[in-house]
């Protein structure tokens, strides 16, 4: 299966044209190197941890590897981690079924090799739980597992601040489990100062606090860079015209505060009005479930609802019996299922669905645990059959092989017919063309002047004098295009469904 998925992800990595967010990430961060990516945050579009790692891979010289290589490696690592964790808690065959359920999810498949930080975030999520298993085990936990736990939290939050939605539940699950085990040990041994689990709890708290400090330190660098840049450009700030380093040395706290205010004030955080939020939240969560398994949102909702009750029952019984074999897994899943919607309701936030790609981990474990409970001795075979059937249905009939965006694909198609690498003077008529030129041909073009250009690519909507809709990608509309020049000096050489490519005729 790993060989098959490696080949499949390799195909997707090179065959699918990057869509806008990937291209933006490559153009502004990855292509400019890891140091630049680590200190620039104009928008949440910079998944900093991912951009830094990708900036290193980009040194290999292939833009597809630079953009998507980290996600590719993480996608494969996630399958191995899921299988390894599953083997610890599940009956034979169900760990494989869990992996099949996971990789069949639409959201997981779409993000697997995208040049964004979501798949890396899932890797951090799984690594945090893997290290938590080692920490909470009966044997003495090595220091390396506390370090791994802390680093997984740091990298997750450094990549996506929204990963806090899984960071807090993971820490909560580990804390509850160790506290429970510590109280059991204290009761049984009557040694208040000699409880191994309570010492582990102290270590876990210490690792979590260290992770928080490291994360703040990494973002502090970004805040310094943002704040100093804003201060030197703002007239009346008292720092106008000064050098960035000078501002940082003279007023570091002012720079940090300015950068922090800028980041928190971003309009891209999906907060909504509290009035009517719950109604919108219900619709939003069903749409999210549909992104896991297309067309099965109600079934997925039922699995989560029943799964939460099932987990609560198992945890209650396990604590009453003083048994903690699978208790950590149950707590991990329940905290993830319950706490995340609580945080969203408190925030009145409806984030992008892709933020919750890690929820696929919760869902696949719920499915196999339910099968394990009710399938008895046939659970393994039943799980494999059901997961294979679902995988066949999803990959065969749900458009999993489609391009991310047809617009970017058509731009790439049109540019490939223009001999762009031999052109002496280029222009761009929208920003997506600009980013694709950089990604595909390593050409940095900021010229939007059509006159004098050898190649001009026009969106067909630009050809319509009646088209008045504002399109944020466009640098030109019908009224801004020099049609006299186009008629005298340019001729169309290629056309697809959405674009027309013109080349200078020499007339």
Task: Give an overview of the whole structure.
The protein has 507 residues and is mainly alpha-helical. It has a domain at 406-504. 65% of the residues lie in helices and 3% in strands. It is built from 21 helices and three strands. The chain has a three-stranded antiparallel β-sheet with strand order 1-3-2. Helix 15 (297-321) packs across helix 17 (359-375). The termini are far apart. 40% of the residues are buried.
Helix content: 55-70%
Spatial strand arrangement across the major sheet: 1-3-2
Tally of contiguous helical segments: 21
Strand and helix order: HHHHHHHHHHHHHHHHHHHHEHEE
Structural Rg: 26 Å
Q: What's the β-strand tally?
A: 3
Task: State the separation between the terminal residues, measured CA to CA.
Answer: 59 Å
- Class from helix and strand fractions: mainly alpha
